[in-house]
Amino acid sequence: MQLLIVHDDAEVGEQLMSMVKEYTAHQCDLVESDDAADRWAGKHDQCELLLTQLEGTAVDGFMLGGSLSEIFPGLQTFFFPAYPAAEQQLEIAKTKVFPEPIDGERLLEAIENVAKLGIKGPDLFQVLDVLQMCCLSGRCGAVQMVQSTRNGIVYLRDGRIVHAESAAADG
Q1: pLDDT at 17 (0 to 100)
Q2: Residue 129: CA count within 13 A, CB half-sphere
Q3: How far is residue 38 CA from its own chain's centroid?
Q4: Distance separating alpha carbons of residues 45 and 34, to the nearest angstrom
Q5: Rounded average pLDDT over 140-154
């Protein structure tokens, strides 16, 4: 399996890459920005897993995950947000979000789960994982959730939920 790590802190990126190479048999490359990731993608035929900062000096993990998933169908994405792990209020099973300090054992387990499942479908996230990450990162915008024929949307301002709506409720 081919992995790409995108992190603008060379020391953290190198540690992550060393851990992946030492404890797994997967191919792993490291780049420092969205632009470098786009150049990397132009030279590679496959990438199954993107491990990226949520946001950094030259990194926007949401945008990068979207653009690379158009190049590599079935691409799975893990995020490294800037907030400390101690701020998380909920621990999500099978998370794709790894705040600092990064729990290496849990990250390696998640990588192996992707490899074992051979996921080639859409990159799905736990709703609470995404909402918690967006809130703790102080994001603004909207998160739309869809399950079968049901859907809802949550609006955020500076990491606070300011409104939510679905076909059945509004508030």
Answers
A1: 97
A2: 16
A3: 17
A4: 18
A5: 91
CA distance 45 to 69: 13
Closest Cα to residue 1, out of 102, 117, 103? Answer: 117
Q: What is the C-alpha to C-alpha distance for residues 111 and 78, in angstroms, rounded to an integer? A: 9
Q: Which residue in 111, 40, 126 sits closest to 76, CA to CA? A: 111
Please write the tens of the pLDDT for every residue from 15-67: 999 999 999 999 999 999 999 999 999 999 999 999 999 999 999 999 999 99
Q: pTM for this structure?
A: 0.88
Q: Sorting pLDDT into bands at 50, 70 and 90, what band is 12?
A: very high
Q: What is the DSSP letter of 92?
A: P
Using CA of residue 86, residue 92, residue 97, residue 102, what is the dihedral sign? positive
Q: Give yes or no for a contact between 134 and 159, defined as CB atoms under 8 angstroms apart.
A: yes
3-class DSSP state of 123: coil
